[in-house]
Write a structure and sequence with these properties.
It is a single chain. By secondary structure, this protein is α/β, with parallel strands linked by helices. It folds into two domains: 198 residues, L-asparaginase, N-terminal domain (Rossmann fold, 3-Layer(aba) Sandwich), CATH 3.40.50; 116 residues, Rossmann fold (3-Layer(aba) Sandwich), CATH 3.40.50.40. Helices cover 27% and strands 21% of the residues. The chain is built from nine helices and 18 strands. The strands form five sheets. It has an eight-stranded mixed beta sheet, sandwiched between helices. It has a four-stranded parallel beta sheet with strand order 15-16-17-18. Strands 2-3 form a two-stranded antiparallel ribbon. β8 and β9 form a beta hairpin. The longest helix is centred in the N-terminal third of the chain and has 14 residues. It is elongated, with a radius of gyration of 21 Å.
């Protein structure tokens, strides 16, 4: 009787701690080859038939939208050749990339699983193999048919994830959305949470992102005049402001008038809560209500990473303010609640 056919999974390498090695000075740097990782997967042949594809080998602090495009292009080009994809990535910008891919891969219906590690694969006690092994298993099971993040014992929707800790092994959390699954002795899935409900259509690649976005955090004493030249000279096409609490702003300086001026010049101003686990609610307090009247757009319950990437993606699609507002308020890939 012929053996059970195993799923074909493509490992896509982009670097990060998970594939780092020490140089002659003792510093961790991106490895020069992937063989050390792929050679450890003899047991994985029971789970999946693995191929690998090298995109870049960088510290994720050097991640760019151009590399997002390259990653998305690989998945798009090889989409019908594989049952799923696993992408290795550094942890510092991992949630930005998961968000970017969730928008770039329109009508996705296969698992695209991203993972990383807090300790390099060659280090004693590394979490690299645990995360990579489980990422391949999750992709091979094909229960998750979207962009997801597998890290430690959690399976998270990619555009709902955020890095919470720099030094702990369970570095990521999903502050505003339930987990897609949990990893213990076995992998437990919560199928009512995934996949994101949408009609099954042919995969489309929509991977352009505008980098002309600026993000600012308010603080008591913040001087809003810094926005004047940005708005008048149109140095940036979009502005993100981290407000106080649920997204409130100071209404006793010129910030409101600057938001209104930016709106007039078709420069969207996105307000987001300063609380990592909080939702942007602008209608509760008078300060938030005035911001809405001035033209500000609420980030709702999106994470900062996702709100930033979604605005970049939206600005690459259109210059029309009405369209920008509509897209930012629409749940495109499960990144926001109703």
């Amino acid at each position: 009787m012929p053996g059970k056919k195993v799923p074909k999974i493509l490992l896509v390498f982009t670097g990060g701690t998970i594939s780092m090695a020490k140089n002659s000075q003792g510093s961790w740097v991106p490895a020069k080859h992937t063989a050390e990782i792929t050679n450890t997967f003899a047991l994985m042949k029971k789970e999946a038939c693995l191929d690998s594809h090298f995109v870049v080998d960088i510290d994720s602090s050097n991640m760019t939208p151009e590399i997002w495009q390259k990653i998305a292009a690989v998945i798009y080009a090889k989409y019908h050749q594989y049952d799923g994809f696993v992408i290795t990535h550094g942890t510092d910008t991992l949630s930005y990339t998961t968000s970017a891919l969730s928008f770039a891969l329109v009508n996705l219906h296969k698992p695209v699983i991203l993972t990383g590690a807090q300790k390099p694969i060659s280090e004693l006690g590394s979490d690299s193999m645990f995360n990579l092994f489980n990422s391949v298993k999750v992709a091979a099971h094909r229960r998750i048919r979207e962009v997801a993040l597998v890290f430690d014992t959690r399976i998270m929707r990619g555009n709902r994830s955020s890095k919470q800790y720099a030094q702990k092994i369970d570095a990521f959390w999903s502050p505003q959305y339930p987990l897609l699954g949990e990893i213990g002795v076995d992998i437990k899935y919560f199928p009512h949470k995934s996949p994101f409900s949408r009609p099954k259509k042919e995969l489309k690649l929509q991977s352009q992102f505008s980098t002309r976005v600026i993000s600012l955090s308010l603080f008591p004493g913040f001087e809003p005049h810094i926005l004047s030249d940005i708005i008048e000279e149109k140095w940036y096409r979009g502005i993100i402001i981290r407000g106080f609490g649920p997204g409130n702003i100071n209404t006793e300086n010129e910030l409101l008038s600057l938001i209104a001026r930016a709106t007039e010049r078709a420069i969207p101003v996105l307000l987001i809560s300063s609380c990592a686990g909080g939702t942007t609610i602008l209608g509760t307090y008078e300060t938030g209500q005035k911001a809405i009247v001035a033209g500000a757009i609420s980030a709702a319950d999106m994470t900062l990473e996702t709100a930033t990437v979604k605005l970049m993606w939206t600005l690459a699609q259109t210059n029309d303010m009405a369209s920008i507002r509509q897209i930012m308020a629409t749940n495109i890939a499960g990144e926001m609640g109703p």
